[in-house]
């Protein structure tokens, strides 16, 4: 098997089948060659195939990627198709001199729109109303004794004002609601002003927001950090939204808060286990709306991801600095 040279970016994927659209884009826009390698090959075969390429574009979640990277002596960058990189040992890769780049927020817009959609749907009991009408029972089965909210005069609290949180804030401009945020990062003042969001200390945001929406990465610092303490601070009329990663949330704590009527409802695109277990109590709660980790999908997203990963790979091939590097945590 002939290994890749330094002018070739390797795409590590299941079955090693070429993605023709990606090949065409690489050749047309960056004069870049791609070599597709099956990550189901043996470690030795993968090493031989990848050769001296400085870039490894990873489509999927192959096992033992750190071990493979350690054997690729000229590897500089692992480029993912995904926004989340919690499945990679980013810190371990950094120790051997390999950087990791994510998809540069390619799905930020569509995830932000899903977060807003979940807020709207939970506030308005949309799922119950859809189900009632489709079942032919019209308004039967819809609890109109429960409050129905609009965005007007509501405080929307964003935990994280990065690529997705900032777009939630911008899209809610003009909806007659107040947008507040908390972020541990020291954000540029002009950037914050462009979002229209106002900073609040973490506890104050939780205590005063009508909606709390999570927009943080999953890493060793955030795993399970939103738990009983946080739900204990929130208003019983508040809505909880999670479109980032399931393990950021202590799901048992959410279930307890809902069962004890300490929350109005919740909207989730991600769960602690995926697929969600069929006996999970969340599935039978009428005030909980769940979508199957599908928020990041759209026609536009695919095009943006492809363009970014090819451009980033070409940067490294040319000896330039790649963008959207994940900080080792």
Question: How would you characterize the overall build of this protein?
Answer:
The protein is α/β, with parallel strands linked by helices. Strands 8-7-6-9-10-11-12 form a seven-stranded parallel beta sheet, with helices on both faces. Strands 2-1-3-4-5 form a five-stranded parallel beta sheet, with helices on both faces. The longest helix is centred in the C-terminal third of the chain and has 19 residues. The mean pLDDT is 95.
Topology (SSEs and partners):
Layout: E1 8-13, H1 20-30, E2 33-38, H2 43-50, E3 55-59, H3 65-71, E4 77-80, H4 90-95, E5 99-101, H5 108-124, H6 126-134, E6 155-159, H7 163-171, E7 178-182, H8 189-195, E8 198-199, H9 202-208, E9 211-214, H10 228-233, E10 239-242, H11 251-259, E11 265-268, E12 288-290, H12 299-317
Parallel strand pairs: 1-2, 1-3, 3-4, 4-5, 6-7, 6-9, 7-8, 9-10, 10-11, 11-12
